[in-house]
Each structure stands twice: as C-alpha cells, then as structure tokens.
Amino acid sequence: MLAQERSMQQSVSQPTIVYCDNKSAIDLAETSAHRQRTEQIKIEDGEISINHIPTDEMLADSLTKPLFKQKHEGIARRIWV
Questions:
Q1: DSSP code at position 28
Q2: Which of 2, 6, 16, 73 has its CA 20 to 30 A from that of 65?
Q3: By C-alpha distance, which of 9, 28, 10 is closest to 18?
Q4: Cα–Cα distance for residue pair 26/51, rounded to 1 Å
Q5: How many CB atoms lie within 10 A of CB 58?
Q6: Where are the domains of the chain?
Q7: Cα(76)–Cα(21) distance, rounded to whole angstroms?
Q8: In Å, how far are 2, 35, 50, 52, 65 from 45, measured between CA atoms?
Q9: Sign of CA pseudo-dihedral 29, 12, 54, 52
C-alpha cells in the first residue's frame, strides 16, 4: 500500500482551488489542530486553496441536490449548458 501511495504523489505548480459554502468546513481545513472526530488527509502546505463562495452562487448544487426549476435554469445558464 505504501508503494502505491508513493507512486500517486506528484508535484503541483499551483494550488488546486476548492470553493466551499460552509465556513465551518473551511475553518476546519485551515487549522492544523487535530480533532478526534475528523478524518485527516495529509495535504502539503500550498497544495489546496479553499475559498468561500455564497451558497446561492454554488454551481455544484445542480449536481448534488434537487433544485427548483428557476434555480436550476439559472445555474445552467451560468455554466453554459
């Protein structure tokens, strides 16, 4: 397993940007304090940039939850579908 993990590592020239509408999740991800009830994933500094986005601007909602027609159509227009 360890050999497989090493083969999956690659260098990243720019951080991957993750947009999140949950401020508690952002705070948890940005603090390095160990919390007993959270799973930890080892991420080197600078690999991921977590940015807050308001819930009503979250384009991924159309892929992850049921939406009213008006909200779905607005998101579809914004992602050029």
A1: H
A2: 16
A3: 28
A4: 8
A5: 16
A6: 15-78
A7: 19
A8: 21, 19, 12, 18, 32
A9: positive
Cα separation, 10 vs 6, in Å, equals: 9
Structure tokens at 25: 């999740």
Name 17's Cβ contacts closer than 8 Å, sequence gap at least 6: 48, 49, 51
- Residue 4 pLDDT: 58
Q: What pLDDT shows up at residue 74?
A: 86
> pTM of this prediction?
0.57
Interval 9-17 mean pLDDT: 76
Contacts of 40 (CB under 8 A, 6+ apart): 34
Give the pLDDT of residue 52.
92
The CA distances from residue 26 to 42, 48, 60, 74, in Å, are 16, 11, 17, 26
